[in-house]
């Protein structure tokens, strides 16, 4: 059996008892970075063998698959969050299912859904872009195409490219489009910045240094313009988020 085990995106208390049982009972745990996952294992006193998994490497994928075909129970984790969602995991799941091997995905932490829940933006239907491509033309095309669907758009970004991403989103969606940036969620320095794309970019640009991973969310243009009452409600909720930190 292949187990996809979500791990905390920051606060270690967010791991579930079921996830801990799975990590402690499998034959081996494959991860992105053994140094990072070992900290989690040390904290919870998990002694299961820890091996590196490189999803882009055919030998790594086939080595993991071979263990599964031998009948071993194997868990896959990412550095934080749900494996397979903008993190390694999808390809080994595809291989396991093609080989008739059982796959179990445990529920748990995920940065995108956590950020959406706290953003005040519509989350009944959304577009998840993950990390944008490096190419400027591909980035702009991805943002324009996502914006055209009239849904909330979610993406991940590093502190080094977050201002660039906000500028590109402003061009693709308009400066008045509602936005929310969540930084360092579940950690000590968790922060939320809400407003229009232009306002969020101005707040972040005023910082001397940006640290931590970001989840950027942009509201649906069409829905906001078509329903004034809903827009007003969203605006009030986002205004209360502007540059806020948990107390």
Features:
247 residues; 2 domains; Cobalt-precorrin-4 Transmethylase, domain 1; single chain; alpha/beta; Methyltransferase, Cobalt-precorrin-4 Transmethylase, Domain 2; 10 helices
What would a concise description of this structure say?
It is built from ten helices and ten strands. The protein has 247 residues and is α/β, with parallel strands linked by helices.
Per CATH, the superfamily of the largest domain is Tetrapyrrole methylase, C-terminal domain
* CATH-assigned fold name of the largest domain: Methyltransferase, Cobalt-precorrin-4 Transmethylase, Domain 2
Helix content range: 40-55%
CATH hierarchy, class of the largest domain: Alpha Beta
Low-confidence stretches: 223-237
Radius of gyration: 20 Å
Number of strands: 10
How are the secondary structure elements laid out?
Blueprint: E1 2-4, H1 17-25, E2 28-31, H2 34-44, E3 50-52, H3 58-69, E4 74-76, H4 90-98, E5 103-105, H5 111-119, E6 126-131, H6 136-147, E7 152-157, H7 162-173, E8 178-183, E9 191-196, H8 197-205, E10 214-218, H9 221-226, H10 228-239
Parallel strand pairs: 1-4, 1-5, 2-3, 2-4, 6-7
Antiparallel strand pairs: 7-10, 8-9, 8-10
């Amino acid at each position: 059996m292949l187990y996809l085990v979500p791990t905390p995106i920051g606060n270690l208390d967010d791991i579930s008892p079921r996830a801990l049982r799975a990590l402690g009972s499998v034959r081996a745990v494959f991860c992105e970075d053994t140094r990072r996952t070992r900290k989690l294992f040390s904290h919870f006193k998990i002694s299961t063998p820890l091996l590196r998994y490189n999803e882009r490497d055919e030998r790594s994928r086939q080595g993991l698959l071979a263990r599964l075909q031998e009948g071993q129970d194997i868990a896959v984790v990412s550095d934080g969050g749900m494996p397979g969602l903008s993190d390694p995991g999808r390809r080994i799941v595809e291989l396991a299912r093609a080989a008739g091997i059982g796959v179990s995905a445990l529920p748990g932490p995920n940065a995108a859904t956590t950020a959406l829940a706290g953003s005040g933006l519509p989350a009944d239907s959304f577009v998840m872009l993950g990390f944008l491509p490096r190419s400027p033309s591909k980035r702009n095309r991805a943002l324009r195409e996502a914006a055209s669907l009239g849904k909330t758009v979610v993406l991940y970004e590093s502190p080094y490219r977050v201002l660039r991403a906000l500028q590109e989103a402003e061009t693709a969606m308009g400066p008045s489009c509602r936005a929310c940036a969540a930084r360092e969620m579940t950690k000590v320095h968790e922060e939320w910045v809400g407003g229009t794309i232009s306002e969020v970019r101005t707040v972040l640009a005023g910082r001397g240094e940006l640290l931590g991973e970001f989840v950027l969310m942009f509201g649906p243009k069409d829905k906001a313009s078509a329903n004034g009452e809903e827009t007003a409600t969203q605006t009030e909720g986002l205004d209360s988020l502007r540059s806020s930190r948990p107390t």
